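Narrative of activities, Objective 1.

The group set out to show that a structural description can be obtained from nothing but a protein's sequence at a throughput compatible with the screening campaign. Below is one input-output pair from the validation batch, recorded exactly as produced.
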Amino acid sequence: QHMFVYFLIKKRKEIEPKFFKNCKKMKKIAIPPCIRTINESAFDNCINLASSFFYIYGNFNSIKSNAFNGVSNLYNININECLSTIGSTAFNNTNLSQICFNGFSSSWTIPETWDIHAFNGICPTGTIYCVDGTISSADMLTCLKAKYPVFKDWN
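Output recorded for this entry:
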């Protein structure tokens, strides 16, 4: 089943809106590097999708509204500087408790195209990590807290 899903999306540049919505049997997915966009509600309510880590690779630039809404087994994401857009409530009602920022420069700021409600409904406490870049985890958390009230209780 896992390979079949990979085959379905391996030649695409985006995952269409609601493509996997309410797919309760899906437990894992490998998103191929050709994907640039995850559209609205693509994985909405995929309650058994159990990704301990979700990697947003260099070519990946957009996560639309409600893309991972209700994916309660999503705990960790790994983001790099190329992610230019995150839609409203993209990670709503997940258990996201760790965000790893890869390769961010000290001059980086949160793009205006990251919706202020993108992280609503996530785990109330968590950890920010920054690796391979010059911006520190503390600086990143301060930056996130300034835009997203949901991060006020994070470590």
